[in-house]
Every structure is written in structure tokens, then in C-alpha cells.
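FAQ

Q: What does a record look like?
A: Structure on top, sequence underneath. For example:
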């Protein structure tokens, strides 16, 4: 009986994956319900330890849906100095010799990237970028946007194609939205981007969808894409068939100097525009050359974002505290007098390490200039030393003990601080599990830092495989988790059980095993059996991995083999 139950559980979970993740149901709703009821009776009669039918209620609700992109939605590599554009040009010229390169330059809208999938000229689905492979399904909201065509008037019907663009809120509409929320005594949005994200992803706020706007910036999957020849021509075509594009600020250039001038003009002009922008995007115009240059696993090699200089504000260092990361690195954080940049309240700024503190000659009570680099990351760019000399200053001292577990701190040769107590340092454990559930790893939504901390402290979760043993009952033991949220997290865990091999490797928090190296190892070793039994000599031969990283991986496998086996047995790894 137990074998039959396990077999049926696997079948139900597989169907869930194809319905919720692949958007491709394998069985009818009726057939699903029949098998679900059979499993429910079997679990009830035998009292199995992990009865999935008591917790899984697969309603077709927007909040639970995920959508897989046909062609990955990659991020853009960013630079923060226009002068660095010459380095980008040199990389291109190394690959494309004796070619006159044409650049298509566009304004970078500060919004939420979406992927629109059309089938035979009709809008089929819409999803956010997500982790680049799987995004959140926002089709219901997108259907209410007048700026996005639902039916396309094309003579030839392509079977399936993807159109990509940015959902944003104009400055004018941002004021309207917050005015409406104030009247309803609801929390207002801090900036236009958070408004776009909040309205798009929330199950409520349906009355505010009409205030969203859309600009199209390109295509994803499309058969015979090369027939359009270039980025500029595809934008013209998309405009022609009804998609709004930012054509006023889209230009073709042949020289880097021309792009630099374009950048400076738009940086001055940006405040006069009715929407937020955070830079320009430079793309190789030719689709043929784009294909030749290719992509990394993170971003295209033929495109780069040049971020505008961020807004600056003066603040004061009030105190310094230290945080512990997943590898044990201890980082100083400055608590500063609150300031607002681009609508966001900033109270903490990363000081990176004591080399940075020494270089900037930073002390407690110093007045400093804080800039939001690329409109996202706050950074201290300058110390103001000519004023406020009378005020007492205090040195920022190197701590002797780990702020989490109180173990003695290890100071590396490069001056970086580290805690070596990996097994018993609570903050390290929390960070390791945070990374494990993150979007680019196991991609389990709804499990935040506080939930992870409670699960660890209550000994509900000790190793990674314990995440997949969690029941709704277990989750209800966590403070502030009600039944609805517990069920939502449980469903997210079930949907994450089928994972790509490289994402699985990345989730393990092995030192030196980032996204790129995870992809390299997955391609070389092919499967988990080879990974578990790999020798150091095999690892060090993997291109660009390096001996140090090979050693870290080999030691990790030696120390964690049993817990890894438990994890592998709890999930389904796709090679």
C-alpha cells in the first residue's frame, strides 16, 4: 500500500508541475480530481507520515501560478561610468574584427520587465522576469491594460512568440495612485517602481491597474527572428502592429563618442520626462552579430546598461554594526541619520570592509555624502571634513568576536573578517537557508529571513532536506503564520521539488560555486551521481573553475555527503 501511495503522490506532484510551472496540463481537471480523491482516501486509511492531500489544494489562483519563458529573460550587465563603455566596445571588437558596428541606444525605463506570450495572434499569457527562466503569471492584470494589444493584426500567424517590455507608472499617475490610497487610509507607495510592482503582483488593487503603462523593448522567442535584421527594425515593426515603444529616445550610433553625448543629453533631460529612467541601454543593432556574440548564463554579451549618476544626499554616521554572511564573512554596516533618495528611506549603508573604512577615513559622527548607485544601491561616496570639526568623533573598531555566535573572529591576510563556526553560527545558518530558497536557487517563494530563523531555532529545520518535509501543521508553529499563508508556502515548496541541476548546485552555498561555476559543473558532470563521487583531480580540470574552488567543492562533498543524499532523495533534479 505504501508503494502505491508514493507512486500516486509522485504522479500528482508531476501533474502540478506541468499545470502550474509549465502551463501545460497533462490531464483533464476531472481526471485530476478522481486521482486526487483516490489518494486522499488511501492516505486517510493508512495514516501516512506525509499526507499531501491534507495540505495541497491546487486552486487555479493567480497568486500561485508560475510561467516558464520559452527563451530566457536575461538581465543586463550594468556599468556606472560612461567612460567604461570603451571597455565594452573593446570586448565586442575582439570578437567582431573589421566590422563597422552599429549600436541601437534606448532609454532604460525604471519599471517591471514582463514577457508577453502570443499564440496565433492572441495574447496567451504574461509573466514577470522572475529568475529569468520562470516568472510570476500576471495575465489577469495585463488583460486590463489598454496599452497592450490582446489581438494582433498580422497576415501570417506565427504559432508562438514572445514580446518583451517594461510595465511602469508615470510620475503623473504615481501622484494619483497615492492620493487614492491616502483617501482609503492605505499605505502609500514610496516610488513609481514600487507602485508598478505592487499593483501588478497584488491580488488586490485591481482598481489601480488602469494607471499602469507599458513600453515594448524587444522580442524573446520568435521563429525566423533574423528576418527582421536588427533591433531598430523590430522596434519599428512592433510599433506598427500596436505596441507602444519609446521611439523618441531610441537612436542609432556608430561611435562611442556619439553614445556618450546621447547619455549626457538624456541625463539632463530625464527630470523633464513623465516617467522614471535609470540609464540607457546600448545594444548591437544587428541580430546576426548578436547571435555571433551570444550570452553568458546571466546576460547578453551584445548589450549593456549604462546607469545614470544617482541622487546624492548628506547624512551622518550614527553607529556601526556587523553582519555575518553565508560564508562566514563579517561585514560592517553604517547606521546613518535617515535620508530619502528617489522616494526610498535609507537608514543603513554597507561599509564593505576595513580597507574601505580606512581609505575613506570614516568615523562615527562623520558627515557623509550618500549616493544611490544605479538608482538601487546606497553607497558613501564622500566624507565632509571641512565642517562640524567641533563634534566628537569615535573610531570604528574591529570586533574581536562574531556578533552572532560570539566565537573569536579570524582576520584574513587581505584584512577581511571571518567567522569559522559554520555549524553553530545562527546567522550563517540563516543566510545559507535564505540562499537555498532564493529565486536563482530552489526558487521557493514566501520563506523569508524571520521564518527561516524560527524554523532553525525551533529545530524544525536542521538540513536542506527538512524544508521538503515541512507540513502545513509545521508552518503553523511559526509566529504570525496563519493557515492561508502556511498553505501558500507549502504549495511553493511542492512546486520547487523539480529543479534544474545547475540551480541545485548553486543552492548549496559552496564557496566559489556561483552561477557560472554551477553551470560549468552541471555541463561537465551531467548528474548528481557523478557530482557526489567526483574526485579533486576531475574538478580542477574543469575549465575556469580553478584549484581553490575545486578544493572547496571536494571538501564540501566529503563533509556533507549524507545530508546531500537526503536532499537529492527529496527532490527531482532535471539535467
Amino acid at each position: 500500500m505504501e508503494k502505491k501511495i508514493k507512486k500516486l503522490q509522485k504522479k500528482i506532484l508531476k501533474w502540478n508541475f506541468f499545470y502550474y510551472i509549465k502551463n501545460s496540463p497533462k490531464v483533464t481537471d476531472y481526471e485530476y480530481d478522481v486521482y486526487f480523491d483516490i489518494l486522499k482516501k488511501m492516505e486517510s486509511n493508512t495514516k501516512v507520515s506525509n499526507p499531501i492531500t491534507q495540505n495541497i489544494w491546487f486552486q487555479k489562483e493567480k497568486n500561485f501560478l508560475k510561467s516558464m519563458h520559452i527563451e530566457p529573460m536575461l538581465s543586463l550587465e550594468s556599468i556606472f561610468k560612461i567612460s567604461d563603455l570603451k571597455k565594452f566596445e573593446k570586448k565586442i571588437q575582439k570578437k567582431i574584427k573589421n566590422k563597422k558596428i552599429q549600436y541601437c541606444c534606448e532609454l532604460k525605463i525604471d519599471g517591471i520587465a514582463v514577457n508577453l506570450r502570443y499564440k496565433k495572434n492572441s495574447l496567451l499569457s504574461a509573466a514577470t522576469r522572475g529568475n529569468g527562466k520562470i516568472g510570476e503569471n500576471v495575465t489577469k492584470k495585463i488583460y486590463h491594460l489598454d496599452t497592450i494589444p490582446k489581438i494582433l493584426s498580422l497576415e501570417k500567424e506565427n504559432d508562438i512568440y514572445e514580446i518583451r517590455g517594461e510595465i511602469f507608472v508615470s510620475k503623473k499617475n504615481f501622484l494619483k495612485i497615492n492620493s487614492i490610497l491616502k483617501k482609503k487610509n492605505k499605505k502609500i507607495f514610496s516610488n513609481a517602481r514600487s507602485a508598478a510592482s505592487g499593483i501588478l503582483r497584488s491580488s488586490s488593487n485591481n482598481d489601480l491597474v488602469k494607471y499602469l503603462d507599458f513600453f515594448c523593448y524587444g522580442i524573446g522567442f520568435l521563429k525566423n527572428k533574423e528576418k527582421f535584421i536588427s533591433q531598430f527594425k523590430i522596434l519599428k515593426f512592433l510599433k506598427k502592429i500596436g505596441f507602444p515603444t519609446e521611439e523618441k529616445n531610441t537612436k542609432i550610433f556608430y561611435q562611442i563618442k556619439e553614445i556618450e553625448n546621447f547619455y549626457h543629453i538624456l541625463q539632463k533631460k530625464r527630470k523633464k520626462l513623465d516617467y522614471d529612467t535609470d540609464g540607457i541601454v546600448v545594444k548591437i543593432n544587428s541580430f546576426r552579430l548578436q547571435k555571433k556574440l551570444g550570452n553568458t548564463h546571466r546576460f547578453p554579451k551584445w548589450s549593456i546598461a549604462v546607469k545614470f549618476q544617482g541622487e546624492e544626499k548628506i547624512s551622518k554616521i550614527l553607529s556601526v554594526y556587523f553582519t555575518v554572511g553565508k560564508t562566514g564573512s563579517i561585514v560592517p554596516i553604517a547606521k546613518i541619520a535617515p535620508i530619502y533618495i528617489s522616494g526610498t528611506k535609507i537608514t543603513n549603508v554597507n561599509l564593505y570592509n576595513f580597507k574601505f573604512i580606512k581609505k575613506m577615513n570614516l568615523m562615527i559622527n562623520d558627515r557623509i555624502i550618500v549616493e544611490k548607485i544605479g538608482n538601487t544601491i546606497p553607497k558613501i561616496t564622500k566624507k565632509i571634513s571641512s565642517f562640524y570639526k567641533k563634534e566628537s568623533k569615535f573610531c570604528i573598531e574591529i570586533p574581536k568576536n562574531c556578533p552572532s555566535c560570539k566565537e573569536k573572529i579570524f582576520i584574513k591576510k587581505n584584512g577581511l573578517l571571518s567567522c569559522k563556526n559554520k555549524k553553530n553560527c545562527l546567522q550563517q545558518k540563516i543566510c545559507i537557508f535564505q540562499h537555498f530558497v532564493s529565486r536563482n536557487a530552489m526558487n521557493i517563494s514566501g520563506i523569508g529571513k524571520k521564518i527561516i530563523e524560527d524554523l532553525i531555532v525551533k529545530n524544525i529545520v536542521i538540513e536542506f532536506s527538512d524544508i521538503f518535509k515541512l507540513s502545513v501543521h509545521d508552518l503553523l508553529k511559526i509566529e504570525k503564520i496563519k493557515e492561508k499563508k502556511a498553505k501558500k508556502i507549502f504549495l511553493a515548496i511542492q512546486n520547487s521539488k523539480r529543479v534544474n541541476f545547475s540551480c541545485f548546485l548553486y543552492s548549496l552555498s559552496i564557496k566559489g560555486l556561483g552561477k557560472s561555476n554551477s553551470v560549468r559543473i552541471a555541463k561537465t558532470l551531467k548528474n548528481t551521481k557523478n557530482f557526489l563521487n567526483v574526485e579533486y583531480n576531475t574538478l580542477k580540470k574543469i575549465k575556469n573553475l580553478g584549484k581553490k574552488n575545486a578544493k572547496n567543492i571536494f571538501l564540501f562533498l566529503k563533509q556533507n555527503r549524507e545530508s546531500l543524499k537526503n536532499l537529492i532523495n527529496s527532490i527531482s533534479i532535471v539535467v
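Q: Is there anything notable about this one?
A: The longest strand covers residues 312-324.
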